[in-house]
Amino acid sequence: MCDRLEGLVTSTPTGRRSRLDPEPIPRRDFLGLSSTFTAAAALLFATVGMLRLPKAAVLPVPARKFRVTVPETLPLGAAFQPPGRNVAVVRDADGVFAVSLICTHLGCIVKPSATGFDCPCHGSKFAPDGSVTHGPAPVALNWIEMAGADGEYTVDESVTVAQGTRINA
Amino acid sequence: MSVGTAAPQGLRTFWENLRRAPERFRASMFRGGAPTSDRTRSSFVFGNVFLHLHAVRTHRWSLRWAATWGLGIASLAAFLLTVITGVLLMFYYKPYPSVAYDSMKDIHFVVPTGRFIRNIHRWAGNVMVVTVILHMARVFFTAAYRAPREYNWVIGLILLVVTLGLAFTGYLLPWDQLAYWAITIGANIAQSPREVTDALSITPYFDPGGLQKLLLLGSTEVGEEALIRFYLLHVMVLPIALLMLLAVHFWRVRKDGGLAKPADADERLPPPDIHEYPVFTEEPHKTYQIAAVVKGTSPSVGHGPEQTVPSMPHLFYAEAGVFMLTAALSVALALWIDAPLKELANPLVPENPAKAPWYFLGLQELVAFSAFMGGIGIPSIVILGLALIPFLDRETTGTGDWFAGPGGQALVRQALLVGTLSALAVEALVINFGWLREWFPGVPQLVVTAVNPGTVITAIYAAYSMWLVKRFNSARAGAMGLFTCFLCGFVILTAIGTYFRGPNWEFFWSPSQWPGH
């Protein structure tokens, strides 16, 4: 901007700009622009600040940790559903693991089926280990943290673990 | 004793004033007097805060049924019906989980006329969605979005989005199974940008999806926080937004020169019928003044008011007629079909199939291909494309005529065919042979997100539209093709979602083939 105005500004012999030379930007325009930008910035920050309120910091969800007793009679590869929980506990040849029944597509509850798990809402299908085999689900079902041994376990639905994390049974 | 003689006089005046108070109140309300002459008919309009959104005179072209089919006014009428019935429902409705469901049962079974009022609320909402879409189609096909009305077209699009938002927030409130699972799905659509951020492994650093869901639900799952938020949006935020946008929308109709009409509308209209209100009943010493500078070609710019009639009574009676018809339709539907109320929400068992209301089933069909593309990507592309139309179509021929522009009705017929067949072909392919994940197991999610039946249909429509632009050398021709295809896609996807999807969202020719479950 200064380059563009150089020709307009006459220089005094000492090289200093004269008080009478036109200003690079008129003072009133400068003040006007500054106030406009200040007001816009204040408005922006106020809006962002107000969005802090609806973004909850404490989530009103109950604790998701619970105990489960897996029946002795559960066949290998079958899923056991603790009542009232959206979790399936599966025993296979390598051990026991818990997998979330909440579909990774849009949050419906999948149902155990002969081939693994099927989602009723949009037709996603999952293998017994939770991998997607069909439909729109973008990622595998979450595996859930589990501790304990010999059919008595604690499961925490709110903690996911890497696929393949089993407890040896 | 001058007071003694003045008192009876004062009393007489008092009684006389009291007697005439109702008459004077009426005169003060309608300041110009009864609308019997040109002058008082005009002041009837500009002296009333609500009516003066209209011009005092209306062009006879705009009063023909075929000019608008009254669809904009019908949308407004449906909206007012939902406001009135909605306020009535708020007397009994309690926005708290399970209590909400009980209060819905009360409204349905105990509250006097409760079921009837709720039915009207539900049906007027449905009517509003339909009339808003048809109104948009009318404006599009008569090329009424063109300059100087581009801005109002964009406002209209935002009104469409707000209307759908009102419909969506409304159906969480009953807290039944439909409500719970529809909102679970909706909130997860808001979260679906994670489909992309997860695939790029950047979700821990950049998570707009998670933020959107958190803002919408106030929690990670649908519960009391979500219900109060949806209630707030439904009864306060969205209606106020809609009202403010409506004010702008109506005001701009007036300021952009009334309804769009052909430049030669005056000549094409037959002379006024002898029984119609004559154009001028009084000696025109002075016609009405133009009180503001109005952009565009209003009836009063450049030519005389010969083909205009006073808005009172012609326009207002027509509008009142549309109001009555819309109300009659909503009430008839309300008497005929009850608004559904399913069993209490159960977070453990989704309905199978879990279907949204009909106007979202096209979207549900799309999200069954990809949550992000179907729920956010394609709708955004469609809205953006529609918003761009008036800025790309800068032509002027045919404005105000149905199916104006190069190609005309033949082009629309062809576009109907292309739009219908391409959507059906892609659907038939995916229903019979599956899609990428069935053909190449292990295909990366980003590929599925980018290339799925929804995006393929969208791409076909866009390509066809560009071909039309090239063939007719006209942006209007491309827009006609695109808009017609968009309507076809909406209808076909909605029909498939409504009638041909069953348990696990599988394809069935009829619900009678659904397996027992």
**Could you tell me the number of beta strands of chain A?**
10
**What characterizes the major β-sheet of chain A?**
6 strands, antiparallel
Rounded mean pLDDT of chain A is 84
Q: So what's the CATH class of the largest domain in chain B?
A: Mainly Alpha
User: Any idea what the radius of gyration of chain A is?
Assistant: 32 Å
CATH topology of the largest domain in chain A: Rieske Iron-sulfur Protein
Secondary structure: number of strands of chain B: 2
Specify the CATH architecture of the largest domain in chain A: 3-layer Sandwich
- How many strands, which pairing sense, and closed or not: the largest β-sheet of chain B? 2 strands, antiparallel
Approximately how much beta-strand content do the residues of chain A carry? Answer: 25-35%
Total number of helical segments of chain B?
A: 21
The CATH architecture term of the largest domain in chain B is: Up-down Bundle
Number of continuous helical runs of chain A? 2
Radius of gyration of chain B: 28 Å
Task: Summarize the structure in words.
The complex is a heterodimer of chains A (169) and B (517). Chain A has helices spanning 2-5, 27-51; strands at residues 65-69, 79-80, 87-92, 95-100, 111-113, 116-118, 125-126, 132-134, 143-149, 152-161. Chain A is 17% helix and 28% strand. Chain A is α+β, with helices and mostly antiparallel strands and 169 residues long. Chain A has a six-stranded antiparallel beta sheet, with no helix packed on it. In chain A, strands 5-6-7-8 form a four-stranded antiparallel beta sheet, with no helix packed on it. Chain B folds into two domains: 60-261 and 313-351, Cytochrome Bc1 Complex, Chain C; 375-517, no CATH class. Helix content of chain B is 63%, strand content 1%. In chain B, α6 (99-109) crosses α7, α9 packs across α16 and α15 (361-367) crosses α21 (475-499). The interface between A and B is large, with 27 and 47 residues.
